[in-house]
């Protein structure tokens, strides 16, 4: 019998075929990939141009902007500890930058209007000595767009966030990273500088099968935007953390916040968005969260999907030509389609509050019928009794109220309003009144209810 943690031979072959095609068509010196399911590494694979040398899940590659997600975790930790608020202006903690009106949330979501790159030489291939201060990173004209109006990816913005972490913590960004993320999560093969065994970075000539070594620069102040080296094994574990949280580092609620789109998107529908330090992508009916990364000589992709409990990673050591993020998304899709997640058995709630149980069932917002259902840990869910419509989960606050976790009512407070005799009158949710009958006459329905009640229309 195949256990849920094992992949079927056909699935493993499909994964190997995908990376083999990618390495050959992308003309990459090497490629290494991994898939984790429900927090467990279930597949690793690699392809290489060097006979007898196959990188495994412990070989380091540079991961570029996936570093930004690590930096964002450090900032969210400061918020959760009450040391800052995401709505605070940068100036409050890091004065004198000249861009202090930008908020921390805007920096996390790349909506601060800052330039995409630093002034002067290409920072990824030049010495950090050219940018010894934040003024050098930002330049004389740091803004490209009005603050908060649009998503514009900014590497200098994440340099500011790294400096913010250092200023609030009183230690370097690297020290905070190591002590607050890498060590608690056991990511022993993730580091600021390369640690053997590691791959070398290469440029592949676009019209000839020849190589050119890429420089390996220390990024200095820009490190929080793209410095890190890591492995598929470590990134798979990091991705699992980004799915479920870990109270030693960041709660499940906070990592879910990171995966939620926070930057403006196109009106109507969207296929790609940005959360707080994480990219969000809709692909083949699934919502993927993660990040892409690149530095001269390296391309990387990390994706995770909550519904399937999957994490996929692809790392390669060529400057361009191989779409690592696309390959990682394909790997996730292969497993999800070939071996759908086996759901956990249904189990009754371990305990239930009788008063809350009495609230379960149908309620009416005007004439629209919704159902309130009980969930684990004293939570509730409110949504359409049938069909589509607004649906949100709520967590228990401990004072007889619940706060929305997702959907339209995220952050809104659900309250039970009682009559003088203690019986339930109605539910109040963000000014909406939910009654047990359509436009219940004994509840404070906004605008009132016609005293003559429901009636027919004379013919």
Quick synopsis:
With 459 residues, this protein is an alpha+beta fold.
- Averaged pLDDT, please? 93
What is the N-to-C succession of helices and strands?
A: HEEEHHHHHEEHEHHEEEEEHHEEEEEEEE
Summing up helix and strand content along with how strands pair, one would put the structural category as alpha+beta
Q: Output the strand order for the largest sheet.
A: 12-13-14-15-16-17-18-19
> What is the number of strand segments?
19
Low-confidence stretches: none
What would you call the shape?
globular
> Beta-strand level of the residues, as a percent range?
15-25%
Give the end-to-end Cα distance, rounded to a whole number of Å.
70 Å
Q: Residue share in helices? A: 10-25%
Number of helices: 11
The biggest beta sheet reads: 8 strands, antiparallel
Radius of gyration from the alpha-carbon trace, in angstroms? 26 Å
Key structural traits:
7-stranded antiparallel beta sheet; alpha+beta; globular; 24% helix; 459 residues; single chain
Describe the structure.
There is one protein chain. This protein is α+β, with helices and mostly antiparallel strands and 459 residues long. Helix content is 24%, strand content 22%. It has eleven helices and 19 strands. It has helices spanning 9-25, 67-80, 104-108, 134-138, 155-169, 173-185, 223-226, 232-244, 252-258, 324-338, 354-357, and strands at residues 30-37, 40-48, 61-62, 202-204, 211-213, 229-230, 272-274, 279-283, 286-295, 298-305, 310-316, 361-365, 368-374, 380-384, 392-396, 402-404, 413-418, 424-429, 432-434. It has an eight-stranded antiparallel beta sheet, with no helix packed on it. Strands 2-1-11-10-9-8-7 form a seven-stranded antiparallel beta sheet, with helices on both faces. A hairpin with a 2-residue loop joins β12 and β13 (368-374). α1 (9-25) packs antiparallel against α10 and α2 (67-80) crosses α6 (173-185). The longest helix has 17 residues, at 9-25. The radius of gyration is 26 Å and the shape is globular. The N and C termini lie far apart (70 Å).
């Amino acid at each position: 019998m195949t256990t849920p943690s094992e992949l079927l031979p056909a699935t493993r072959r499909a994964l190997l075929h995908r990376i083999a095609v990618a390495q050959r068509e992308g003309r990459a010196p090497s490629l290494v990939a991994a898939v984790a399911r429900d927090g467990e590494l279930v597949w690793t694979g690699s392809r290489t141009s060097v006979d007898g040398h196959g990188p495994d899940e412990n070989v380091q590659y540079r991961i570029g902007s996936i570093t930004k997600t690590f930096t964002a975790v450090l900032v969210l930790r400061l918020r959760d500890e009450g040391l800052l608020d995401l709505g605070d202006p940068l100036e409050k903690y890091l004065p004198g930058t000249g861009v202090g009106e930008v908020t921390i949330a805007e920096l996390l979501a790349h909506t601060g209007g800052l330039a995409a790159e630093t002034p002067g030489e290409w920072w990824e291939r030049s010495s950090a000595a050219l940018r010894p201060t934040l003024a050098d990173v930002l330049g004389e004209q740091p803004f490209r767009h009005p603050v908060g109006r649009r998503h514009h990816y900014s590497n200098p913005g994440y340099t500011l966030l790294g400096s913010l972490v250092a200023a609030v913590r009183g230690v370097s960004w690297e020290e905070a990273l190591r002590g607050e993320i890498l060590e608690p999560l056991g990511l022993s093969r993730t580091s600021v500088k390369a640690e053997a065994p590691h791959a070398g970075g290469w440029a592949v000539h676009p019209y000839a099968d020849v190589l050119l070594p890429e420089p390996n620069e220390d990024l200095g102040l820009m490190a929080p935007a793209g410095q890190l080296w890591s492995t598929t094994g470590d990134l798979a574990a990091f991705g699992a953390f980004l799915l479920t949280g870990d109270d030693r580092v960041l709660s499940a609620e906070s990592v879910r916040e990171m995966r939620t789109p926070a930057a403006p998107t196109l009106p109507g529908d969207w296929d790609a968005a940005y959360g707080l330090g994480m990219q969000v992508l809709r692909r083949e009916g699934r919502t993927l969260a993660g990040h892409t990364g690149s530095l001269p000589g390296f391309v990387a992709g990390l994706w995770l999907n909550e519904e399937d409990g999957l994490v996929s990673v692809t790392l390669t050591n060529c400057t361009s030509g191989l779409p690592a993020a696309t390959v990682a998304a394909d790997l996730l899709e292969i497993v999800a389609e070939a071996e759908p997640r086996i759901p956990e058995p249904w189990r009754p709630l371990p305990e239930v509050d009788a008063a809350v149980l009495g609230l379960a069932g149908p309620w009416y917002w005007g004439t629209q019928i919704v159902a309130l259902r009980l969930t684990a840990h004293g939570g509730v869910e409110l949504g359409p009794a049938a069909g589509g419509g607004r649906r949100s989960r709520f967590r228990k606050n401990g004072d007889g109220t619940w706060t929305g976790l997702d959907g339209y009512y995220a952050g809104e407070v659900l309250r039970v309003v009682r009559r003088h005799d203690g019986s339930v009158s109605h539910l109040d949710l963000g000014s909406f009144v939910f009654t047990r009958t359509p436009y219940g006459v004994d509840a404070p329905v906004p605008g009132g209810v016609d005293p003559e009640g429901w009636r027919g229309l004379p013919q």
